C-alpha cells in the first residue's frame, strides 16, 4: 500500500492583498510554517478525510457525492477537479496538518490544498506540478472563498517570493533581506471568513470607484517601489511602504480595531514597518524589525495584545514531496 507525505508553505502577503482581487499586483512570500498532508492507499471504497488541526473527520465514497464536514469540502472539490483532469479516484486516507493558525491570513487553506493535490497525484504515480498544480488547488480555494485571485495557492506551490497579477504568469522576485532583519507575525486570535471581507472590500470599491480607483492605483505604485526595495535590500524603505499599505487597507475597510492596535503597537515599539496581512478583520499583522533587542522588545509588546507572536523566515521552498513509499 502506497503512502506519500507532501508539504507546502504558508505565506505572507507583503503588499497588495485585496487590490490583487481586481487585477492589480501583489507581492507574496512563503514562510517557514508549513502544511503537511499524508495520503495512504486503503482497502474498501472510501476516501477518509481527517484533520487533527481542525478536529474534523469525514468519509466520502469514490463517486464523491455525499456531503462531508464543511471544513473538509475543499479536499473533495480537489478530487473532483482531479477526476476532470483524468485522474482516477482510489480508496485512500488523508491526514491534513498545519503549523499555521487557521483562518488567520497565513495561507493555511491554500497550503493544504496544494500539498494534498501534490500528495495524491504522487500516490497515483503522476505528480501534478506547474500550471496543473495551480489549476487544481485553485478549485479548493474556491470553496474557501468565491473569487480567489490565486495568489495564495500560487505562492504555496512555487515558494520563494513572487509578484502576482491575476491571469498572468507569476514572477519570482529576487528578495534580499539583509542578515540583521526579521519579520514578526502577530495574531489577533480573531477568526474571520475571507469571503466576507473580500465581498465587503469589493462592494466598497465598486460603490466608490471614482475614489477607490486611486487607492488601487496607489497600491500598484507601492508594489513597484517595494520590488525596488526588495531587490536592493533596503529595509527602511520596505518598512515605510508597509505602513502605507496598511493605510490603504484601512481606507478600503479591511482592518479592524484589533489589527490597528497591533500595527500601532508595532509602530510605537520601533518596527520599521507593519501592516495587516491576508484578508483582514482579524487574523495577523506582519511587522519588520531589526534582529536582537529591537525585535525582542517588539515581540514582547505585541504579545501583550496578540494571541501568538512568531518570528518567521521568508522565501522558503514551495510544495515538496517529503516521503514516498
Ligand atoms: C487573502 O490571503 C488575500 C486576498 O487578496 C484574497 C485573494 O487574493 O484571493 C484578500
Residue share in β-strands? 25-35%
Globally, the shape reads globular
Number of helices: 9
Helical content band:
25-40%
Sheet with the most strands, sense and barrel status: 8 strands, mixed
Oligomer: single chain
Structure in words:
The chain is of the alpha+beta class. The chain has helices at about 75-85, 110-125, 130-145, 150-160, 195-205, 210-230, 235-250, 255-270, 295-305, and strands at about 5-15, 25-40, 45-50, 55-60, 90-100, 160-165, 170, 180-185, 275, 285-290, 310, 320-325. Strand 9 (about 275) and strand 10 form a beta hairpin. Helix 3 (about 130-145) crosses helix 4 (about 150-160). The longest helix is centred in the C-terminal third of the chain and has 24 residues, at about 210-230. The termini are close together. The structure holds (R)-mevalonate. (R)-mevalonate binds near residues 20, 194 and 278. (R)-mevalonate binds near residues 20, 21, 149 and 279.
Amino acid at each position: 500500500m502506497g503512502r506519500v507525505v507532501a508539504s507546502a508553505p504558508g505565506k505572507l502577503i507583503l503588499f497588495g492583498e485585496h487590490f490583487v482581487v481586481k487585477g492589480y499586483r501583489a507581492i507574496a512570500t512563503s514562510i517557514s510554517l508549513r502544511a503537511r498532508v499524508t495520503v495512504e492507499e486503503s482497502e474498501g471504497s472510501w476516501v477518509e478525510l481527517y484533520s487533527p488541526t481542525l478536529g474534523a473527520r469525514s468519509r466520502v465514497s469514490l463517486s464523491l457525492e455525499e456531503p462531508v464536514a464543511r471544513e473538509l469540502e475543499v479536499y473533495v472539490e480537489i478530487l473532483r477537479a482531479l477526476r476532470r483532469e483524468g485522474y482516477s479516484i482510489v480508496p485512500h486516507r488523508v491526514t491534513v496538518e498545519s503549523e499555521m493558525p487557521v483562518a488567520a491570513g497565513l495561507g493555511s487553506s491554500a497550503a493544504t490544498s496544494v500539498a494534498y493535490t501534490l500528495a495524491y497525484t504522487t500516490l497515483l504515480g503522476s505528480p501534478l506540478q506547474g500550471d496543473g498544480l495551480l489549476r487544481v488547488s485553485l478549485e479548493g480555494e474556491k470553496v474557501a472563498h468565491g473569487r480567489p485571485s490565486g495568489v495564495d495557492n500560487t505562492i504555496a506551490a512555487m515558494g520563494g517570493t513572487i509578484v502576482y497579477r491575476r491571469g498572468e504568469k507569476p514572477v519570482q522576485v529576487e528578495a534580499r533581506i539583509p542578515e540583521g532583519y526579521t519579520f514578526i507575525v502577530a495574531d489577533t486570535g480573531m477568526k474571520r471568513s475571507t469571503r466576507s471581507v473580500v465581498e465587503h472590500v469589493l462592494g466598497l470599491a465598486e460603490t466608490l470607484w471614482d475614489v477607490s480607483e486611486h487607492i488601487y492605483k496607489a497600491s500598484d505604485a507601492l508594489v513597484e517601489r517595494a520590488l525596488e526595495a526588495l531587490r536592493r535590500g533596503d529595509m527602511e524603505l520596505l518598512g515605510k511602504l508597509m505602513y502605507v499599505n496598511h493605510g490603504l487597507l484601512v481606507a478600503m475597510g479591511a482592518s479592524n480595531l484589533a489589527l490597528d492596535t497591533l500595527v500601532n503597537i508595532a509602530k510605537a515599539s520601533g518596527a520599521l514597518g507593519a501592516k495587516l496581512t491576508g484578508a483582514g478583520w482579524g487574523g495577523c499583522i506582519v511587522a519588520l524589525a531589526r534582529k536582537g533587542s529591537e525585535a525582542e522588545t517588539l515581540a514582547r509588546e505585541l504579545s501583550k495584545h496578540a494571541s501568538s507572536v512568531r518570528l518567521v523566515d521568508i522565501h522558503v521552498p514551495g510544495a515538496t514531496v517529503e516521503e514516498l513509499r
